[in-house]
Amino acid sequence: MNKSFEYIKTQNATPEEINLAVEQACDCMEQIYSEGYYPKVVVIRNWSEHNPEIAGEFAKPRVYRWYLKREFTKLISEGASIRVVSSRPKIELNTPTLLDSLDEDEWDFTQKKLFLHRPERIDLSLDRLEHYSGTKAEDFQRYILFTNYDMHVEVFKQKFPDCVTPVREGVQMPAYHYKMDKNAGVTLVNIGVGPSNAKTCSDHIAVLRPDLMVMVGHCGGLRNHQEIGDFVLASGYMRSDYVLDEDIPLSVPIIPNYILNIFLRDILEKYSMNYRVGTVYTTANRNWEFAKKRTIEEIHTSRSIAIDMESATIATNGFRYRIPNATLLCVSDKPLHGKPKLSGAAQSFYQNSKEKHLEMVLDAINLVKEKHPDGLPNSSIRASNEPLMGGV
Questions:
Q1: Where are the domains of the chain?
Q2: What confidence category does residue 116 fall into, taking pLDDT thresholds of 50, 70 and 90?
Q3: Is residue 390 within 8 Å of 67, Cβ to Cβ?
Q4: Which of 45, 190, 253, 277 stands the most exposed, by the fewest C-beta atoms within 10 Å?
Q5: 3 state SS for the chain
Q6: What is the distance between the alpha carbons of residues 38 and 350, in angstroms, rounded to a whole number?
């Protein structure tokens, strides 16, 4: 097989010709990588006056081949030319100089480039993703759900009995994959409790360029006119989790994907569920009640309607890495109104809410597939000067 590939735009290329060119480009990338080099892709877009040529290096292209095929098809269909060449030898993950290539403080995310991540970052993240999840990186699907409860895992496995499950016991963030052609299925990851886990997992999943991430969790209801079992659809976040403050300043507004929120709202209405739309307060302190005065001040100032430990973290990393995201929570307790989370009541609530909660999010994903099969528009989380793959 050739170690380079070039497709020069032609007039009136047929879908078959485009498909063949895309397959050959992906095959070439995988061949180069298998022989110990990073493949480099150069795209010429003559329609761009200021940035006609953009390029990027890749690692493990087989893992997200579905994504590369989709984006190459878009580019070629628009009249772009594509060249694949061997770039440079791979840096092994146990090389002491690896970290020099992973320092994202030196990596301008808005610099014009073809792909968001460096190949060294891709290599390491996909290796760690397999370690944390207990599943292969290529098993991850385009639609990612995060939970921190085994009960959602139980429902997912009942609904999709043939889903891929972790190959070993005791993994830190087990993943479950309902696989479909073109990776159009759904992945559920049990990230455990807390913003550190939420950041770790979404850091690594980001290199797969999923079409969306949704936090499916529970929360404390903060308003008097909320009942246990009501739902919360986040319209914004109060970031008291702290884990991403150095990467995304607190002055940067973080909001969910508007279209995804509309779909979630439509499903809530369809099922006649009680819900509120508003700010979710995410804390790093599970025992925030022990610092009540300080926390309550922030809750009142932000007009928050719910409190949890992961939603803002997932949303901020979604913004950081240009992944459409949303949050749908279910009220499990009302800590400010004499209904703290206590073991007996919590267990009863979980049993009554778990199936409907997951089912509604899956229904919303089906709407996304129907209305936006090539991914949700993400211009709201891309800078105006970054023509990244995956943009609509």
A1: 5-122, 135-376
A2: confident
A3: yes
A4: 253
A5: CCCCEEECCCCCCCHHHHHHHHHHHHHHHHHHHHCCEEEEEEEECCCCCCCCEEEEECCCCCCCHHHHHHHHHHHHHCCCEEEEEEEEECCCCCCHHHHHHCCHHHCCCCCCCCCCCCHHHHHHHHHHHHHHHCCCHHHCCCEEEEECCHHHHHHHHHHCCCCECCCCCCCCCCEEEECCHHHCCEEEEECCCCHHHHHHHHHHHHHHCCCEEEEEEEEEECCCCCCCCCEEEEEEEEEECCCCCCCCCCCCCCCCCHHHHHHHHHHHHHCCCCEEEEEEEEECCCCHHHHHHHHHHHHHHHCEEEEECCHHHHHHHHHHCCCCEEEEEEEEEECCCCECCCHHHHHHHHHHHHHHHHHHHHHHHHHHHHHCCCCCCCHHHCCCCCCCCCCC
A6: 47
For 135-376, give the CATH class.
alpha beta
Q: Which residues pair with 44 in a beta bridge?
A: 53, 81
**5-122: CATH architecture:** 2-Layer Sandwich (3.30)
What is the average pLDDT across 185-214?
96
Tens of pLDDT, residue by residue over 334-372, are 876 656 555 555 556 556 667 889 999 999 999 999 999
Question: What does the pLDDT look like over 9-22, one tens digit per residue?
Answer: 777 889 999 999 99
* pLDDT-based confidence at residue 391 (cuts at 50, 70, 90): very low
> Cβ–Cβ contacts within 10 Å for residue 332, how many?
21
